């Protein structure tokens, strides 16, 4: 059974993770994919400075991947908070064996990508639309001050 250091041996992974977390870095996301269809080793395939919609463009329907995304959540500039999302992606045409291995391997990935507000495991890109993810982040944060029409 490979250890986290084996499947995550690409030194660029830890560096990209720290950059996405850093307020001083322009990077807002990273995507990890398996080196090949038969390999359990992950490599950093792409990073970016945009929103989660850029991440969705990198995820293939026939592949498994992990993504880490920095997002701003808030009702205005004064209540805005930086939150992080961990995505476990298994595209709708991902092979069954890969999906089975992912349940174990995602735990290993979490030993490197440790800090996030929400984890989203999905094979549906609609669940990764910015509005859907922001809603999940707001629910995870607890208070939601933009409910309308609620009587207390």
UniProtKB/TrEMBL annotation:
Fetch the InterPro entries from UniProt: ADF-H, ADF-H/Gelsolin-like_dom_sf
Q: Which UniProt keywords apply?
A: Actin-binding, Cytoplasm, Cytoskeleton
Main localization of the protein described in the UniProt heading: cytoplasm
Q: Which processes are annotated in GO (biological process)?
A: regulation of actin filament polymerization
Q: Name one GO molecular function term.
A: actin filament binding
CDD domains the UniProt entry points to = ADF_coactosin_like
Tell me yes or no: is Cytoplasm among this UniProt entry's keywords.
yes
**Taxonomy, superkingdom:** Eukaryota
Q: Does the keyword Metal-binding apply?
A: no
Q: Which Pfam families match?
A: Cofilin_ADF
Question: Could you name the Gene Ontology cellular component terms for this entry?
Answer: actin filament; cortical actin cytoskeleton; site of polarized growth
What's this protein's family per the entry?
Answer: Belongs to the actin-binding proteins ADF family. Coactosin subfamily.
Q: This chain belongs to which protein, by name? A: Actin depolymerizing protein
């Amino acid at each position: 059974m490979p250890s986290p250091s084996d499947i995550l041996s690409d030194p660029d992974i830890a560096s990209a993770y720290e950059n996405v977390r850093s307020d001083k870095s322009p990077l807002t996301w990273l995507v990890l994919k398996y080196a090949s269809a038969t390999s359990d080793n992950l490599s950093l395939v792409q990073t970016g400075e945009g929103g989660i919609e850029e991440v969705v463009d990198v995820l293939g329907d026939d592949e498994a991947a992990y993504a880490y995304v920095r997002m701003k959540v808030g009702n205005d500039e004064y209540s805005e908070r930086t939150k992080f999302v961990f995505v476990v992606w298994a595209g709708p045409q991902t092979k069954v064996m890969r999906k089975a291995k992912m349940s174990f391997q995602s735990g290993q990935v979490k030993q490197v990508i440790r800090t996030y507000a929400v984890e989203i495991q999905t094979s549906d890109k609609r669940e990764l639309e910015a509005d859907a993810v922001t809603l999940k982040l707001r629910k995870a944060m607890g208070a939601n001050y933009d409910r309308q029409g609620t009587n207390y």
